[in-house]
């Protein structure tokens, strides 16, 4: 079940008062607990209503009404989308909302999303069902000849992602099938970058093949961040295409890092999705 956990606005959020570092840290810790539990789908804070608008339709004609809006307590300051098994589970997560936020004086609201089975069969529903056949995510898996631990630690440092798994052969039943010198090598690693995963493993002997014909693509909004990530990934490796502006991107480059993995790093322009 999918629930939206809504944080209602108050006088401070409507005034545009930004959260303190203490609140930011508490919210980040809260989000991280939910990410690791597998219940966090997404979440964002909202700017004051004075920076937004409403589109009011009358007889099919839209009318734009600029903010701010009255009835502050009915507005939203932010939201979190939860993937849970029941309303009770969603409530338990809501109960853990950081006390640091507004001194512990906030109002939250939980609302369940509609699911496909709530609707009657028909052509319109069939189109929605076709969209649900898409996989939840497309992940990347990388092979290494014994350097997986070093590579994944490096990728976590470059991207700021969360290295959520790093299992050795010796920690699994596979330990009986590999030489003792391989017990400390990595059978599974997972780097979580905004909910997308770069996974990796060490491959023995002929099982390892250097990556060819595929690249890991990093998409940045800030050209300077993209350039710095590219510089670090290319260091000790080989630049295939220097990072520079192109007709479709504020910056784009291709490189093979020192572990043999190929990367594309880009900051697409606003005109190019």
From TrEMBL:
Domain Glyoxalase/fosfomycin resistance/dioxygenase: 144-265
InterPro entries (UniProt xref): Dimeric_a/b-barrel, Glyas_Bleomycin-R_OHBP_Dase, Glyas_Fos-R_dOase_dom, PhnB-like, YCII
Superkingdom of source: Bacteria
Residues in coiled coil: none
Domain YCII-related span(s) in chain numbering: 1-104
Pfam families per UniProt: Glyoxalase (PF00903), YCII (PF03795)
SUPFAM superfamilies assigned: Dimeric alpha+beta barrel, Glyoxalase/Bleomycin resistance protein/Dihydroxybiphenyl dioxygenase
Family: Belongs to the YciI family.
Protein name (Swiss-Prot/TrEMBL): YciI family protein
UniProt organism field: Halomonas koreensis
């Amino acid at each position: 079940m999918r629930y939206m956990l809504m944080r209602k606005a108050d006088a401070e959020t409507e005034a545009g008062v930004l959260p303190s570092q203490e609140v930011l840290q508490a919210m980040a810790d809260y989000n991280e607990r939910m990410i690791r539990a597998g219940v966090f789908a997404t979440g964002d804070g909202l700017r004051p209503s004075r920076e937004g608008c409403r589109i009011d339709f009358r007889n099919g004609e839209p009318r734009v009404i600029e903010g701010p809006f009255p009835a502050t307590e009915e507005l939203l300051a932010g939201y979190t989308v939860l993937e849970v098994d029941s309303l009770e589970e969603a409530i338990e997560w809501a109960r853990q909302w950081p006390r640091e936020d507004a001194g512990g004086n906030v109002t939250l609201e939980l609302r369940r999303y509609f699911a496909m089975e709530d609707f009657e069969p028909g052509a319109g529903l069939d189109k929605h069902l076709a969209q649900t056949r898409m996989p939840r995510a497309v992940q990347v898996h990388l092979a290494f000849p014994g350097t997986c631990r070093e590579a994944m630690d490096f990728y976590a440092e470059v991207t700021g992602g969360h290295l959520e798994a790093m299992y050795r052969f010796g920690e699994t039943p596979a330990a009986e099938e590999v030489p003792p010198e391989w017990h400390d090598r990595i059978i599974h690693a997972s780097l979580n970058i905004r909910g997308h995963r770069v996974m990796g493993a060490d491959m023995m002997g002929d099982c390892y093949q250097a990556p060819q014909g595929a690249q890991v693509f990093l998409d940045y909004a800030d050209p300077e961040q993209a350039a710095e990530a590219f510089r670090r990934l290319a260091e000790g490796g080989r630049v295939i295409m220097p990072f520079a502006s192109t007709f479709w991107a504020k910056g784009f480059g291709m490189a093979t890092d020192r572990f043999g993995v190929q990367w594309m790093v880009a900051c697409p322009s606003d005109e190019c999705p």
